[in-house]
Amino acid sequence: MSTERVKKKAGEILPIKVRRELEECIAKFRKRQLVALSLLFAAGVGMLLLTLLPAARNSETLTSSDRGITLISFLRYAGALIVALGVFGMFKVRRTARRRRLILDTLTQRPQELAWLYLEEISFFTPGGAFAVRPHLHLRDGTHAFFPVSRAAAEALFAVYEREFPWMCLGYEPGLRRRLRRDPDALAADPVRSRKSKKSVLRYIKA
Known about the structure:
Layout: H1 3-13, H2 16-50, H3 54-58, H4 71-109, E1 114-124, E2 132-139, E3 144-146, H5 151-164, E4 169-170, H6 176-182, H7 184-189, E5 198-202
Parallel strand pairs: 1-4, 1-5
Antiparallel strand pairs: 1-2, 2-3
Helix pairs in contact: 2-4, 2-5
């Protein structure tokens, strides 16, 4: 099948609802994370600004102990750390959003670059009874991203590419990422295909 026909086919078969949910996932993730990180950054800047106030710098009541660091020093170090974490977090959020956008565009415009798709089932504290299912997509160049979408959208996406694109690897296999890095062409010529999902247990809250 020619590249143009593959591209046209991919653009036609991806359900509009699934594509819309994937796009909303990118936009909502970026917006929510950037708002939270902006508040963190502002808190760090506020702590640093407090250390510059003349009243604070001259006060003798800001000593946490006779031998310990002053509260001014604490605010300075903590503020600098929080600012650094905020900047690093913003960089990671933008990079993740760009990666997801690249993979979404690849889904409909360059599906021949897709290499592997699997679903991750996430349960809370104990295995079983997954409360979330998210698709993971890998490109031939090693780019990877997951999309926190609804179970229905994740399963619809898997069904489409399982049915229409036989060169893609499907299903979770622990050693598949290493094989993909080593020789994506060989893997495309003899793809591993199953409906196995990755089972993950969330034991703590994370963003």
